[in-house]
Amino acid sequence: MKENSLLQKETSKVHLEVVDANKKYSANFGEKKDLGLPPARKFAILTCMDARLDPAKYAGLSEGDAHVIRNAGGRASDDAIRSLVISHKLLGTAEWFVIHHTDCGMEYFTDEIIRSLLSKSLSTASVDQDGWKNVSEDGGSKEANNISFLTIANQTESIIEDVQRIKHHPLVPSYIPVYGYIYDVKSGKLIEIPEATKVGKAT
Ligand SMILES: [Zn+2]
């Protein structure tokens, strides 16, 4: 097909792989066409975007089961809370998990570090035992000074903090339980943070 050959010429390997994988996926779509919009198992997970985490696998989800909200760190940012509020108010989820993980990239920099890197270059930085460095200084932006990157100094504390923030949010009803977990990237296990689950208890 003409369109395909154009795509092959002008695009990346990954781009083609994704388009191809989707062809295979949609060819066997079957009964998934009948799935309803609200999550059938009525729960939501807020977790990190880390490529090693696959919530569908680590939490046993199928299409249509649950909402999965992901961002860097799995943090309870304003936007994550926006999604959770919609998830409950309009789509009926009734319990939420906040799942951070070991070896999270958000532990390896601070706002100061990323702001300083971005102020000189937007290109991917490198890291070694001396820390983060720009590979080139090809022009950056100070716009990062206006962003809180929600980095993590301590995983246990960040889980408790995020569960607390969600629980105390004026748009979150107190009857929603919020469970706090850390996913261990070395074992695939979810480790409960009891103090987080305690502050996240439904009342
Ligand atoms: Zn992470």
Automatic annotation (TrEMBL):
Keyword Metal-binding: yes
Binding site for Zn(2+): C48, D50, H101, C104
InterPro entries registered for this protein in UniProt: Carbonic_anhydrase (IPR001765), Carbonic_anhydrase_sf (IPR036874)
Keyword entries, A-Z: Metal-binding, Zinc
Cofactor names: Zn(2+)
Entry similarity comment: Belongs to the beta-class carbonic anhydrase family.
This protein's name: Carbonic anhydrase
